[in-house]
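W.,

You were right to be curious about this one. When I first looked at the sequence I had no strong expectations either way, so I just let the prediction run and decided to look at it fresh. Below is the sequence, 324 residues in total, followed by the output.
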Amino acid sequence: MLQLIREATMATDVSPAVIDPIRAASRRLVRELGFMRGTLAGTELPPSAVHALLEIEARATMTAGDLAQSLALEKSSVSRMLRKLVLAGLVREAPGVPDGRTKALTLTHKGQAVAAGIHDFARRQVATALRRLSVPQQRSVLDGLRLYADALGDGNGTCDMPPVRIETGYSPGALARCVELHALTYARIAGFGRAFEATVAGGLAAFAGRLDRPCNQLWRAMQAGRVLGTIAIDGEDLGPGIAHLRWFIVEDGIRGGGLGRRLLAEALAFCDQQDFPETQLWTFRGLDAARHLYESHGFVLAEERPGRQWGEEVLEQRFVRQRA
């Protein structure tokens, strides 16, 4: 029924008055973003290699076949490109498990540094453009680009990825993956290091021993057996009647697509089902997108103070959501 409604509301014909301006805008985007040049994003790399580095970084490890599918390129083209990246010391190939014939791709330290530079360049480029727009206009750009990219993918079959499912509870490797996602993400955005990773790992280890109790739960965003994001509710560590929202993370490259909102909605629904009158979370100043998401779900900033609970001094923030 929902599919019939969707099809009924979609345009059955598209006027050239819409098509041609979109084509013109697309060509201008290609030029403005630098894709007409031989190199991209302040590197000495061609666009396909830049995208390859970012895809490998986002997955942490992947095969050449995975990369070809992600980039919608022929395997032979990807193989040639990978050879150059390996020779340049940016990508490492290692025998995969269980099939040793399959090579697992990871970024070297040099590759990680180049990827970080690409992210910095691209964020500055996007931020410079968005500063010229109002907040509602920025949201329109985001929504429009997502819709258009999704429509292009649906039309040519190059984005035929398995759906992302939200699953609950422990699964082998999920806790380690949660630690990995936190360590990689916050090393990049906040410079957190060993102390932060150890803190996350220690907290998760303690929580794992209490996960079978009904007031505690863990959710995993899964795609083709891979953990793309996590969130947890700890119903014990802050005292009776308080739910602690913890270990909320979504893989780089996926944020902004609604997955974090889905995870948060699952966790808050659980809090309401368990009759927690209050839900709290700790974060730190500067994570504006996360703050907007929290506030859109009823969280209010209750406390702000300097602290080092994550290994580096930041302005810590405690948000509170009261059950209606």
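Here's what jumped out at me. The chain has a mean pLDDT of 83. And, maybe more interesting for your project: The beta strands are 91-95, 103-107, 165-168, 217-223, 226-234, 242-250, 278-284, 300-307, 314-322.

Coffee later to discuss?

I.
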